[in-house]
Design goal:
Elements: H1 6-14, E1 22-25, H2 30-33, H3 38-52, E2 56-61, H4 74-90, E3 93-102, E4 117-125, E5 136-141, H5 148-157, H6 175-180, H7 183-186, E6 189-194, E7 197-199, H8 207-216, E8 219-225, H9 232-242, E9 247-253, H10 260-271, E10 276-281, H11 288-304, E11 308-311, H12 312-323, E12 328-333, H13 342-351, E13 364-366, E14 369-373, E15 377-386, E16 388-390, E17 394-398, E18 406-415, E19 418-420, E20 422-424, E21 428-434, E22 446-449, E23 459-468, E24 473-474, E25 480-483, E26 486-494, E27 498-499, E28 504-511, E29 523-528, E30 531-540
Parallel strand pairs: 1-2, 5-8, 5-9, 9-10, 10-12, 11-12
Antiparallel strand pairs: 2-4, 3-4, 6-7, 6-8, 13-15, 13-22, 14-15, 15-21, 16-20, 17-18, 17-22, 18-19, 18-21, 23-28, 23-30, 24-27, 25-26, 25-29, 26-28, 29-30
Helix pairs in contact: 3-4, 12-13
The protein binds guanosine-5'-diphosphate and magnesium ion.
The site of magnesium ion has 7 residues, from helix 5.
Length: 555
């Protein structure tokens, strides 16, 4: 694993000092450090370091007391992280991040020359943000600058915006965080309810504040700013497919009104079968008449896609909560500046049930990223789609490009940078695999139980909706299809020869280069240049189909 060495250098330079927040440890072992008496004193030391660092402590592992680089085996490092996480838990903290470096890389000698590593773990105050049964995850969507981040910022803090985006900074996920696909970083804006009262964040930038909200609340609501960035598509895929959202929150600014992007985002939220709420925000910035006009435009937009708009100001929150679903979309007028309408949103989020369900009991994970750890080997990471996985499990990995599946064994599982015995659906994990080289694993492959009998799929029938296309989609149209973690060129053959923008129809979709594991009911997004659309897998073929190509639609 390579990472910017500067983090390590900085920690070593600051050094271990009395009253500081840096601690050097050569290694932590279960036998020695978790023994009676020892555990308590180490947890107290950790607590002290965290407090000294205003909620954050840095543990440098694999170094001697005076900061000399010793280097330890990856197994010893992993055990050290396990022990550290137990100490942290005892001290009311958690490991927020960990990075490792090989000591051999720069000529420094480790005890275990070659394989030794040294690592830096960041320990933060508070419990880890855990996704409990009652925790709902809301994905925001809408045109840029329409006020998504501001609205969410005002909701989670309970404070008004100054009209210049004062609260939105809380919500702006950095693109690199999105790229790294860290769920913890994506579900960063959270607030909760305890005994019916909102539990707000004081300062969402402080993770310890988030931990407090998690602790105090008996109902949590977190927000993922799904489509705020370009390229929005990738983010959307992660947001909507990877993160298991419960609801969509579509934001429309009252001054601009609905735009092409609004329409597109609505299409995606609905195609992903996300029950959706529309917030017409910036109500303070326009007059009554304009607000009415925009509300009617939103209603029309919803009727165009066969949904029933429900005005919350007329029908009330109770009815909205009850009716919200596949066909009914509540609309609220809000302002982050005056806080109008936010109490209604609160009231809805306090009551809305969790909707994301597990469709399958068997273990399934689509590989998102791969890496290799010295001494451990190939690691495949991704979100566990369904079921659970345990160290020692025998799995199938594939399909390989020839359609075959490979037998592999789970060597170990890492979650939040520490080793766990078992991981269940919804978790982002790294699974170290025996029986395969890292180079053989590709994004889009799936891991599933050894007794599964998966069929590699080269082509499938789909119901597709064209959100946006300059002309029409013809036989031979070749977009990139994003399904689970698969991102692959495919050839479309619409039934009846063509599909017009705004149309819903069926098409045969054929992966251009290789098969993947595809199942009925899976949703996907496709894109090619300006054109975008969404689809649902209706029926899977058995793979090998002819390769004739029709004419590409001229763009
Ligand atoms: P996003 O791109 O959709 O996340 O939009 P932002 O949240 O960044 O908001 C864009 C701009 O609109 C900021 O300058 C906000 O201060 C402003 N804004 C957001 N909500 C409101 C509101 O309710 N009223 C007014 N007057 N301005 C708002
Ligand atoms: Mg934003």
């Amino acid at each position: 694993m390579s990472a910017d060495r500067a983090v390590l250098e900085a920690a070593l330079e600051r050094g271990e000092e009395e009253g500081g927040n840096v601690e050097f440890k050569e290694r932590l072992s279960r036998d020695l450090h978790l023994a009676d008496g020892r555990l308590e004193s180490l947890a107290a030391q950790l607590r002290h370091r965290v407090l000294s660092g205003d909620g954050t402590a840095t543990y440098v592992v694999g170094v001697t007391d005076d900061g000399g680089i010793a280097g330890i085996s990856p197994e010893a490092f992993s055990e050290s992280m396990d022990v550290l996480s137990i100490l942290a838990e005892e001290a009311g903290a958690h490991i927020a991040d960990a990075e490792t470096w090989g000591v051999g890389d720069d000529g420094t000698d480790g005890e275990d020359s070659g394989d030794g590593i040294v690592g830096v773990a960041t320990v933060e105050e508070g419990a880890v943000l855990d996704v409990d049964e009652d925790h709902i995850v809301v994905g925001t969507a809408g045109h840029v600058d329409h006020g998504k981040s501001t609205l969410v910022g005002s909701l989670v803090t309970g404070t008004a915006d100054d009209g210049e985006g004062g609260t939105r900074g809380f919500l702006d996920v950095q693109p690199h965080e999105v790229e790294r696909g860290l769920s913890a970083d994506l579900s960063y804006a959270v607030y909760g309810f305890a005994d019916g009262e909102a539990v707000h964040m004081d300062n969402p930038h402080r993770k310890s504040d988030r931990a407090r909200v998690v602790e105090e609340s008996d109902r949590l609501v977190s927000f993922v700013d799904t489509v705020g960035h370009e390229p929005w598509l990738r983010t959307t895929i992660r947001g909507l497919v990877g993160q298991r959202l419960d609801y969509g929150l579509l934001v429309v600014a009252a001054d601009d009104g609905p735009t092409k992007t609004t329409r597109e985002h609505l299409g995606i939220l609905l195609a992903m079968e996300l029950p959706t709420v529309v917030a017409i925000t910036k109500a303070d910035a326009v007059d009554e008449e304009r607000l009415e006009t925009v509300e009617r435009e939103v209603e029309r937009l919803l009727r165009d896609v066969e949904r029933t708009p429900l005005r919350v100001d007329r029908h009330g929150v109770e009815v909205a909560v009850e009716e919200l679903g596949d066909s009914v979309v509540p609309i609220l007028q809000t302002s982050a500046v005056t806080m109008d309408g936010l109490d209604d949103l609160d009231a809805m989020f306090r009551r809305l049930p969790k909707t994301a369900t597990e469709e399958r009991a068997d273990f399934r994970m689509y590989v998102d990223r791969t890496y290799s750890i010295t001494g451990v080997g190939a690691v495949a990471s991704g979100t566990v789609n369904s079921g659970s996985v345990e160290a020692g499990d025998e799995l199938l990995l594939g399909p390989m490009s020839d359609g075959s599946f490979r037998e592999v064994e789970v060597r170990s599982i890492e979650m939040h940078h520490h080793r766990v015995d078992r991981a269940k659906a919804g978790r982002i994990v790294g699974i170290a695999l025996k029986g395969v080289d890292e180079a053989e694993i590709e994004r889009g492959m799936a891991l599933l139980p050894a007794d599964a009998d998966p069929t590699p799929v080269r082509s499938f029938e789909a119901e597709v909706m064209v959100l946006n296309h300059p002309t029409r989609i013809r036989d031979g149209y070749e977009p990139v299809v994003h399904l689970e973690t698969v991102g692959e060129a495919a050839i479309f053959r619409p039934e009846g020869g063509q599909l017009l923008p705004g149309d819903t129809g069926t098409a045969t979709v054929e992966f251009k280069f290789r098969p993947y594991l595809v199942e009925e009911g899976q949703r996907f997004v496709f894109r090619e240049g300006q054109s975008k659309g969404v689809g649902t897998v209706m029926e899977v073929g058995d793979g090998e189909s002819g390769g004739s190509t029709g004419a590409e639609d001229g763009e």
